[in-house]
Specification:
Oligomer: heterotetramer
CATH architecture of the largest domain in chain C: 2-Layer Sandwich
Chains: A mainly alpha (207), B mainly alpha (191), C alpha+beta (265), D alpha+beta (198)
Number of strands of chain C: 8
Helix content of chain D: 40-55%
Structural class of chain C: alpha+beta
Radius of gyration of chain D: 22 Å
Strand order of the largest sheet of chain D: 1-2-3-4-5
Helix content of chain C: 25-40%
Number of helices of chain D: 5
CATH topology of the largest domain in chain C: Alpha-Beta Plaits
Structural class of chain D: alpha+beta
Distance between the termini of chain D: 67 Å
Number of helices of chain C: 10
Number of domains of chain D: 1
Order of helices and strands of chain C: HHHHEHHEEHEEHHEEHE
Number of strands of chain D: 5
Strand content of chain C: 5-15%
Chain lengths: 207, 191, 265, 198
């Protein structure tokens, strides 16, 4: 039981994608111009992650080692197409906003990374929990990054304006170049936090 | 011929696939630490990108469209790319072992490179002819290589610069990329 | 029924054709790779630190399987890796004595003089370009922390006296600091070494006396005092031989600048 | 790589991609209906709202698809006909037709009042005309308004071509495209009137 909790929480802080566990940057940078699209993509990734982790760990015994990457990719691609069709059917506005970034979930290094590094070796329950943890972690960090960029960039959050009238917005951060700098900044802040944590841990160890 | 030049220029510099369109950022951050790994990755990307785009274009035009299976495009393309990368790996290992050892660890990475798949899908969504698609693939890969090598040369200087411990590695790489993207962004009005 | 059937046939066909192509390619372009290399590589820590002298763990594993490298070649891994690698290769491995890095210079800010004030890139290699570094002693440690930054295991930290300090618990003897330092101040010594001359200067005694109060002046007193004949003076610098030295400590009192010291804290 | 290994590789990959292909086809069949509804709702509805009024149903759901001809490659050309009803009675019918424009096809959604069969108004749906020239023409009320009130069998050519519509100055090609679209729309209406009013 504790293993399950541990697998779940690791996705939420210790190895939270994409900050500590730097994977899947392409979609993170592009989609976080608005919180709505970030949450939309996060939802899509969570579904694909869960489906692919569960299926991969179910089939892990019968897949010959030589062709396992191709089979994982087929499973992930099917998950992505299901998300694409579902989004087109029920959230058409979001589908138009995300555009090419939905099919690009299939090459999201996070999904294939989890399948390759984790789901292939673990039981179904652990794979599911890991997918949940990673997926929610990914969506959370996407939302944080997106709200940061939206509030600073345009002064709104989920479309509701939150900043005072005189705030004209800082469009640089919405532009592609701003995305890099913003993510770099957040990674730096995360490093500071983890450096301090490690330093405490080392003192505890040394003492 | 003139418009091809303009077309290539716009794909290489103006809307550079990496700094403006964000495709291919994962290997970009991972590999741009040192110059020779960047060049290795760039060469592999150009080679595989052109091959993958032509194959995917053919699959789309001769298999998916006649059968009306456009919605399954993601699955078909990514299977083709994965198989292609594995094929290139096997062939290179036998035909050119030194090249294989130089590109070695980057080849499997290319399957999950968003640029290869992204360019294949963009070519279809923007309804390009076969030659246009291949030219677009070549120029985007060239743009990717230019950005990658530019960043690698800058980041190599970081090794001996006074970078605070906290900023070393990914943060400094990302922030440099942001500033270089800003310079590319200045050219947007050109084409 | 049409669309489902066409989808199944199309995708199944595509999978079939591609995997057949892969199969044929695997057959035609078959290159024999010893599977053991993969197993050994999995056991190695994978830090690619280069301590074994090969370009990364895969190369080291290949060398081990080919018999060029002994199972204990991997310094970073220590005993556990050595035993595991030996088990895979099916040969017995003598547990190698652990190497650790030691700083062979005590010329801290107060003790050693400076030729000029250097304020360029904070890297010893860069400082070396500026007329051989800002320290009067041309063998001494410049204290700009290249080794600290290069250490893949974070075992080195910069002391407040301007000299790096080795943290033996984390040091795996990978040798990165030795190769990265332009003056090779950090050197790998056996963990059990009892005494050493913490200086790298081959200058004449009177030059050393003028520029550094804690350097080895090559007077040879320690050599005369050593009953085991463990100390040799090569170009005005005393070198302690690890095998012969039994740590009796007779040389420590004789040394006028106290540069030869006991390592056994 | 022994032969048996290669065989198992081929079988596994073929079976997995086949099964996934089949599964996706099933999912596609389930969602096709909903996707089409969404597509129409988001692209066509703005035009529908501009030209239809006084209805109490959702024209997007009450629609039928007619095969109204063949294109160059021989594939069927389908026209979707939307019904605007009031108290269950059809008061107007709207459908889309295309005319060759400057940059490509210009799509015009037109509404015909039932039973008096008079054109109730037209709106441009999809076009890639140059925004500053053709685009302006296709949105200007005085040009697009000329069609309103004309009977189905009127001649919708430009006044220069003997018709009753004067083209938007400076954008003759786009205005001609609009008239061509309306003319072909009227032909479809007359040809398939029985199915439409069925």
């Amino acid at each position: 039981m504790s293993r399950i909790v541990e697998e779940f929480t690791k996705g939420l802080w210790k190895e939270i994608p994409p900050f500590r566990f730097v994977l899947g940057l392409c979609s993170v940078l592009a989609v976080t111009t608005s919180v709505e699209s970030a949450v939309g993509l996060g939802g899509g990734v969570v579904f694909v992650l869960i489906m692919s982790n569960v299926l991969v760990s179910l089939l892990r015994k019968i897949i010959p080692d030589k062709v396992r990457i191709a089979v994982f990719i087929v499973i992930i691609a099917s998950g992505v197409i299901i998300v694409e069709l579902a989004m087109q059917a029920y959230f058409y506005g979001l589908f138009q906003v995300l555009g090419i970034w939905i099919p690009l979930i299939v090459v999201n290094c996070l999904v294939l990374g989890r399948a390759e590094a984790f789901a292939r070796k673990e039981s179904v329950v652990l794979a599911l929990v890991d997918a949940l943890g990673m997926g929610i972690g990914f969506t959370m960090s996407l939302t944080v990054l997106a709200s940061l960029r939206e509030i600073i960039g345009v002064g709104t959050w989920f479309g509701i304006s939150v900043m005072p009238e005189w705030y004209l917005g800082f469009p640089y951060i919405i532009k592609p170049a701003g995305a890099f700098v913003c993510l770099g900044g957040i990674l730096a802040i995360m490093n500071v936090v983890s450096a301090r944590l490690d330093a405490k841990k080392r003192e505890a160890e040394a003492a | 011929m003139g418009d091809y030049l303009l077309f290539m220029l716009s794909a290489i510099i103006i809307n550079n696939i990496l700094l403006i369109k964000f495709l291919g950022v994962c290997p970009f951050i991972g590999v741009s630490g040192s110059m020779d790994s960047a060049i290795g990755m760039a060469a592999a990307c150009v080679f595989v990108n052109v091959l993958a785009t032509s194959l995917c274009w053919m699959v789309q035009m001769f298999v998916l469209e006649p059968l009306g299976l456009e919605y399954i495009q993601t699955l078909a393309f990514i299977v083709v790319i994965a198989a292609l990368v594995q094929l290139v790996e096997i062939v290179l290992q036998k035909v050119a072992p030194p090249l294989y050892r130089a590109l070695g660890i980057y080849l499997p990475l290319i399957t999950t490179n968003c640029m290869i798949f992204g360019v294949a899908v963009l070519n279809i969504r923007e309804e390009r002819g076969f030659i246009d698609a291949v030219v677009y693939a070549f120029s985007t890969a060239a743009g990717f290589s230019i950005a990658l090598i530019l960043l690698a040369s800058i980041r190599e200087r970081f090794a001996i610069g006074r970078i605070p411990k906290v900023l070393q590695g990914f943060p400094s790489g990302l922030i440099t990329a942001g500033i270089v993207a800003l310079s590319f962004y200045g050219l947007v009005g050109l084409a | 029924m049409g669309p489902i059937l066409s989808a199944v046939v199309a995708m199944g066909g595509l999978g079939l054709v591609l995997s057949a192509a892969l199969g044929v390619a695997a057959k035609v372009f078959y290159v024999y790779v010893d599977p053991k290399i993969g197993e050994v590589a999995d056991v190695l820590p994978g830090a690619n630190c280069g301590g074994c002298g090969y370009a990364g763990c895969n190369d080291c594993a290949a060398a081990m399987v080919a018999g060029e490298a002994a199972p204990n070649a991997c310094k970073a891994g220590g005993d556990s890796v050595t035993q595991a690698a030996a088990a895979i290769l099916g040969i017995s491995a003598t547990a190698a004595e652990r190497d650790i890095a030691k700083i062979f210079c005590r010329g801290a800010h107060g003790a050693a003089e400076r030729k000029f004030i250097y304020s360029g890139i904070s890297d010893c290699r860069a400082a070396m370009q500026v007329s051989g570094g800002d320290k009067s002693c041309s063998y001494g440690c410049l204290g700009l922390g290249t080794c600290v930054a290069a250490c893949p295991f974070d075992a080195l930290s910069m002391g407040d006296d301007g000299l790096p300090v080795v943290d033996e618990r984390f040091c795996t003897g990978c040798g990165t600091c030795v190769s990265v330092c332009p003056r090779h101040i950090p050197q790998l010594i056996k963990e059990t070494q009892k005494a050493a001359t913490l200086c790298s200067s081959h200058d004449l005694g009177k030059i050393v006396k003028a520029i550094c109060s804690v350097g080895c002046i090559g007077c040879g007193k320690c050599k005369k005092a050593c009953p085991e004949k463990a100390i040799t003076i090569t170009k005005f610098l005393s070198i302690v031989d690890h095998e012969k030295c039994n740590g009796c400590g007779k040389c420590f009192e004789k040394c006028p600048t106290g540069v030869i010291q006991s390592l056994v804290a | 790589m022994s032969f048996r290994e290669i065989l198992s590789m081929i079988v596994v990959l073929a079976v997995v991609s086949g099964v996934c292909g089949g599964g996706l086809a099933v999912v596609k069949m389930q969602t096709a209906e909903q996707i089409e509804y969404q597509k129409i709702k988001n692209i066509k509805e703005p035009a529908l709202k501009a030209i239809l009024s006084g209805y109490d149903n959702d024209p997007v759901t009450d629609r039928i698809k007619l095969v109204t001809g063949k294109d160059k490659k021989g594939k069927d050309v389908e026209t979707t006909v939307f019904y605007a009803k009031k108290g269950g009675k059809v008061i107007a019918v709207a459908f889309e037709a295309y005319g060759g424009g400057f940059e490509g096809n210009v799509g015009i959604m037109m509404a015909v009042k039932i039973p008096d069969e008079v054109l109730d108004g037209i709106a441009a749906t999809t076009h890639s005309e140059t925004p500053s020239v053709g685009g302006v023409a296709l949105n200007s009320p005085d040009f697009m308004g000329q069609f309103k009130g004309k009977s189905v069998s009127d001649n919708f050519a430009l006044s220069s071509g003997g018709g009753a519509i004067n083209g938007y100055s400076g954008a003759t090609v786009s205005s001609e495209a609009a008239t061509k679209a309306v003319t072909s729309g009227m032909e479809i209406f007359k040809k398939f009137k029985s199915e439409i009013l069925g």
